[in-house]
Design brief:
- By secondary structure, the chain is an alpha/beta fold.
- Helix content is about 50%, strand content about 10%.
- A five-stranded parallel beta sheet has the order 2-1-3-4-5, with helices on both faces.
- The protein is globular, with a radius of gyration of 17 Å.
- The termini are far apart.
């Protein structure tokens, strides 16, 4: 059964392109494509998507505001932010709002599909440029969004290597190829990294690593 996706995008050409990309893919089907978030809760209740692809700049309610509402009302839903913006403030606010990932509209279609799958599987996909900005932002500013618990377990050499790839925005399949290990093995290592750092997502792992001085 295909994974159900809802699109919130005000640009009709982009919305139609996203609809085509998703509906011609192997793993996904679009159950609703909307130009704004005026009936956000009603639409999610009616169409029950498992994933939500969210633009940031829309008339009325912004994508970040919408993500906050989704995180509050539908905590099981995964929201992937897709935007032309890659400035630190918008990334920061999207993460704080509960976004599961943040990619750019300039990313190719295959990257969009892999990001959707990664988000669905519990990851936190980010474009390489976005991940670097997150790393730089939290390295430069002493912002604490996750517990700075100093009792984290030491990471193995393999886990440190994979964490570095995650900080650079590399997706899990590419990490598997670079590390000469299977995709499932990478997922196991990532789960161990999350457990040892006491976090639940890639974004939190990046923040915690910055706070702890890991991989500097």
């Amino acid at each position: 059964m295909k994974i159900k996706v809802a699109i919130f995008e005000d640009n009709p050409l982009i919305r139609e392109a996203l609809l085509t990309i998703i509906n011609t893919s192997e793993n996904f089907i679009c159950v609703g494509a909307f130009p704004d978030c005026k009936q956000l809760v009603e639409n999610i209740n009616a169409y029950n998507p498992q994933l939500i692809l969210m633009d940031i700049e829309m008339p009325g309610m912004s994508g970040i505001e919408a993500t906050k509402i989704i995180s509050s009302h539908f905590p099981e839903k995964r929201v992937l932010i897709q935007t032309v913006f890659n400035d630190s403030d918008k990334i920061f606010h999207a993460i704080c709002a509960g976004a599961s990932g943040y990619i750019l509209k300039t990313d190719p279609p295959q990257r969009l599909l892999s990001a959707l799958l990664e988000a669905y599987e519990g990851g936190a996909p980010m474009s390489a440029t976005i991940a670097k900005k997150v790393w730089q932002f939290f390295s430069r500013k002493n912002v604490i969004l996750v517990s700075p618990d100093n009792s984290v377990e030491p990471l193995s050499e393999r886990e440190l290597s994979i964490l570095k790839e995650m900080q650079e925005g590399t997706n899990l399949k590419a990490i598997a190829t670079a590390q000469f290990i299977s995709y499932e093995t990478v997922r196991t290592h990532v789960k161990n990294i999350y457990r040892k750092l006491h976090v639940n997502s890639r974004a939190e792992a990046i923040m915690k690593a910055s706070q702890q001085g890991i991989n500097r």
